[in-house]
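Reviewers of the previous submission asked for a worked example of the structure-prediction workflow described in the proposal, so we include one complete record here. The input consisted solely of the amino acid sequence. No template or homolog information was supplied to the procedure at any stage.
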Amino acid sequence: MRVIVISAPMRSGHHAFISTLLIRNTCPVFFINNPPVRAGDWLDCQYISKRMNLRLQYNMTFMEQYPASDSLPVSEGIYTCSMIPEREDFIRAIMEMQDCVLVVNFEDILPDHKRIARYLRFLSRDFANIKSTFLLFMRDPYNLLASRLARTKFYELRESTMVSIIKENDNDGIPKSIENIMDVVRDFLGFSLSNKHPNELCILDYASWLYDTPYRASYEQKIDLKLGEPTSSTSMHGKGSSFHSNVNETDHHSLIHRFKQFENTYPYSFIVDRLKLDIDRYYKEICSEAVPLGFLNSTGS
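From that input alone, the workflow returned the following structure tokens.
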């Protein structure tokens, strides 16, 4: 069995990417979302079953080969099941499939985290011959920060615009939740830009995947799966987009500019200022040349 291990910060767009993997490929593909890795089991059925359609999903080919009578559509081309899978039956079905692929994601932890190593160790108890591919999935830092902050209590929507509702106070320091966001983004930026990560690790940029056809083709070769452009299916993970806009954004090429409504607001600008060197390097070294980064001239990069 092949395993695609995705490490990504929350709000990075990785669920749209995973949905594309499920829909575009005709081989059996199934997806486990952010597994807890507890009790020594890679398939934590009890945990998965609480919100089944958010924990276990599979494509049409997998559904046709997995003997479950209660498969339910999650979105077009993506399915789940309403009942807890019988563990042994589920594993047996996977073993009988040809070219089966497991996609598993871990949010807000880096690829070298011990939780990922433990998960793969538990998985190897049931599957002897596992071929693992590791992806670090990143969103460009301006939009990643904006998307995460939009979900905090520090911003609210007013007349179709995100507005900061707190002011910077040097005496009180920054809120702990803001520190946590800054730490996660700093860690992922640092890891992306480091020369110390393993050669088998692929760093995939969300904006480059959206904009650059040759970029997508190169990653199809690296992971031996079809990617293509994002599908029209909306992922139910993450409760949809963090952004609100009056502009018709059915064309995904407009998404790179969504962060602009957060410019010159606190705490967005506060974090950008402190991570500026790594942010600049990310746009220059990681983003594809096909991504329209004209806005960098107006942000001082």
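Residues 141-196+237-295 form one domain. We consider this example representative of the routine output the project will generate in years two and three.
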